[in-house]
Design goal:
The complex is a heterodimer. By secondary structure, chain A is mainly β. Helices cover 0% and strands 50% of the residues of chain A. Chain B contains no helices and eleven strands. In chain B, strands 2, 4, 5, 6, 9, 10 and 11 form a seven-stranded mixed sheet that branches. Chain B is mainly β. Classes of the chains: A mainly beta, B mainly beta.
Chain lengths: 107, 121
Amino acid sequence: DIQLTQSPSSMSASLGDRVSLTCQSSQGIGNYLSWYQHKPGKPPKPMIYYATNLADGVPSRFSGSRSGSDYSLTISSLESEDTAIYYCLQYDEYPYTFGAGTKLELK
Amino acid sequence: EVQLQQSGAELVKPGASVKLSCKTSGYTFSNYYMSWLKQMPGQNIEWIGNIYGGNGGTGYNQKFKGKATLTVDKSSSTAYMDLSSLTSEDSAVYFCARAASWELGNWFAYWGQGTLVTVSS
């Protein structure tokens, strides 16, 4: 199975900070990587698909990028509503697999 | 508007089975894959498998073969997941999630609200 390693596992940042979360794949998955925002009691919300594409309704302060097998989710200016756990997902091959998540909190 | 409405919370005894449902609306059910996912408390999300609404073709995570069985009822645009021989390790929130599209890929564009399954005697 493809392993996705997310870093950091948790972090805190201040309002207005630029925040970058990373997801590293154990095998080549092309751009078949998506990001999800998960808040307690709600289903995960898609944020980015195909590594760099913004999902519908996602604010433009979110962006995705790729460098080799490293994928990043960046928030250009952190807002309070962005506190959540963020998961990456590879959908290149079965079984689809998620990273363990990055918990993002406000400092 | 695409909507996925999952069935309510279940409290089931060890060794029993449970059938979860995911009733959909707002799109052509036959044209998309539906996945099921598991999240134990405080744990990662796991992909159980998926099923194509058109012909019921399935793909399973090897880990869940024998545990989960996915089916669809096209007449009611509903996806189902049977979980058998339940143990405490099956206590979790289960989500259904619809793939985006053939063009955009099988990432999970739409999600149900989740169903909590608690296995306890």
